[in-house]
Amino acid sequence: YTFTIVSYLIGVFIFATIVGQVGNVITNRNANRLEFERLLDGAKLYMRHHKVPHGMQRRVQRWYDYSWSRGRMQGGGDINSALGLLPDKLKTELALHVNLKTLKKVCI
């Protein structure tokens, strides 16, 4: 009886550990997804506020989706660091769209 009880308790303990680890993996995945969605929403709000053309907004959103699907979406923080995750070409185009009025006023 003692051997059966001890082996049963060990089995329950191992099962509980496995179920707990699976729960942690799911929780972390959801937390990462929420962080990604927060970054994407911040980028959308920034682009909408600065009246970036819809084609450019779509390209940035597609880049975020591509990065998420490839598992490359890391980092975060404020909107500047979120947009800092963009590739250099997209950052340059976005900066041009946002600052074009100011750049046109500069005499060279």
TrEMBL record:
Coiled coil: none annotated. The chain crosses the membrane at residues 6-26. Keywords: Membrane, Transmembrane, Transmembrane helix. PANTHER family: CYCLIC NUCLEOTIDE-GATED CATION CHANNEL SUBUNIT A, CYCLIC NUCLEOTIDE-GATED ION CHANNEL-LIKE, ISOFORM E. This is Cyclic nucleotide-gated cation channel alpha-3-like. The lineage of its organism: Eukaryota, Metazoa, Ecdysozoa, Arthropoda, Chelicerata. InterPro entries: CNG_cation_channel, cNMP-bd_dom_sf. The keyword Membrane applies. The keyword Endoplasmic reticulum does not apply.
